[in-house]
Amino acid sequence: xxxxxxxxxxxxxxxxxxxxxxxxxxxxxxxxxxxxxxxxxxxxxxxxxxxxxxxxxxxxxxxxxxxxxxxxxxxxxxxxx
Length: 81
What we know:
Layout: E1 4-8, E2 13-17, E3 21-27, E4 30-35, E5 40-43, H1 47-57, E6 65-68, E7 72-75
Antiparallel strand pairs: 1-2, 3-4, 3-7, 4-5, 6-7
């Protein structure tokens, strides 16, 4: 089972463990990836494209990521209230 999400950005190839993704927020034609520990990475793709990548690359873990409205994908592991 794959546990990493691989995303190509304009400057590098990003490989992130699924459990390190806190949430992903839309920023126009870009997306901000918020990681556990406070790191933020700018992605050069829209939120819909990120959602599709999660579904394709993480079919087993994709159910933990839920799109909330038009501009947010959250990791359900970090929802406490």
